[in-house]
Structures are given as C-alpha cells and as structure tokens.
Amino acid sequence: MLAPLSANAECSKTFDLGMLAFPPYIxxxxxxxxxxxxxxxxxxxxxxxxxxxxxxEVPFKxxxxxxxxxxxxxxxxxxxxxxxxxxxxxxTAMRREVVGGFxxxxxxxxxxxxxLDALIAxxxxxxxVLGGWYGAEFANAxxxxxxxxxxxxxxxxxxxxxxxxxxxxxxxxxxxxxxGYHVSKDAGLQTHIAPxxxxxxxxxxxLMLSRATTTNADLEAIDDxxxxxxxxxxxxxxxxSYGPENLTRELAAGQD
Length: 256
Fold this sequence. Notes:
This protein is an alpha/beta fold and 256 residues long. It has 2 domains: 14-96 and 205-252, D-Maltodextrin-Binding Protein, domain 2 (3-Layer(aba) Sandwich), CATH 3.40.190; 97-201, D-Maltodextrin-Binding Protein, domain 2, CATH 3.40.190. It is 39% helix and 25% strand.
C-alpha cells in the first residue's frame, strides 16, 4: 500500500483510489508514487477536507469495476454518466476536460474533417482508450451506427493509442488534448502529429466514490472542500502551470 498523499486525517478512513496513468494529469514513478495535475488538485482538496488518500495504477475498465464492487474506494478524474451513478457517488467537478482528435500531420484527408458529424460519416479509423467517455454524441454514434462502430479500435492505454496512430492502425486518436500533447511529446511523436481543429467533447471530470464504501459524512466533507479549492487562485495557477497556455486556458475556464 502506498503512503497516504495527504497529511491530515479527519475522514473516517484513508481513501484507496485507483486510476490508469495519463500524463500530465496522473502518472506514477518507478516506486509507484503518483504525481501530476489531478493528483495535485486532489491533494489540495483533500488537505482542505482533512482527509487522506492513496492512489495506485489500475487499468481504467478494471478500476471502474472495482469501484462498483467496493474493492476500490474511488477514481479521480472520471466523467459522470447515468450508468456509473448507479453504484457510485460523484463529487463536484475536479476540472474541465477538453477532448479532441490527433492525426498524422501528413494525412491531408483527415486534416480536412471539419466536425464530429463529418468524422462519424467518414471512413477514417478511430482510436480510443478502452472504457473512456467521449461525449453523448460519440457514444450514440457507436451504439446506433454500425459502420462507425466497426471503425473503432480500443487501446488499453494512451501511449499504445499514439503508437497505433503513428503506425497507421488508426487515423484519428481521440483523447484529452492536454494529455495527448504530453503523451505524444514524451513518446517522441509530437513532430509527426497534429490536432483536429474541432473539439469532440467538452466535459467536467469528477472524483467518483463507491457507494459501497463511502459514508455520507465523508462525501459531504470532500465535496465541500473540492468546491472551495476550485475557487482559489492557487487552483487556477496550478492548471495553467501544466502546459501550453492555449490548452490549459480551456481547462481553467468556467471553474466558478
């Protein structure tokens, strides 16, 4: 078990959280210690609440299952959906999420796609990370459009998704824009790819907590602290410190 990432302890327990690595929001060093923007946001809020937490690396779809079953207490940075709410609580938003698409910068056909509707209607192969949420329009197209569904390739992680893009296995990698920027840079692919001009989904991400293991008192304390932390200058400055201003400015918008 990793050492708690907050110092005080006023909640009923230390919260055991799991999430896959997706820099710059969450990453893990060789010792398993978590770091990144969402870890810093979570630490700021949990310190205000007087709570402790551990965070360790778990594949996304497995973590969703474990939270539902109560084998994990929660996951940070998760989209709220009706299906997930059946077995979990969602706090107020941790931050904004801006999802777009990355393409090979030599792919003229893909670069001319002007909208999500046009992407769905095209014959381009689309890559996603297994278990992710890309908005209601994207999800509806996957469910009701067999041709689009057949062109979807699901990866277990972000690095593999960008390797697929580089190799031509997919033509568009659908991913959070700031994460895509950092992952592609770390993989040495940044000069070979470019973002699509349109946004696929703009969303808010939340701390998701298991109904099986979270008390109402703990939920209220964490939720209140997170809402207060998001209104601080420190919160906005933290987001703006994590990447190019044209990307981080979108994440910091509308936080009040």
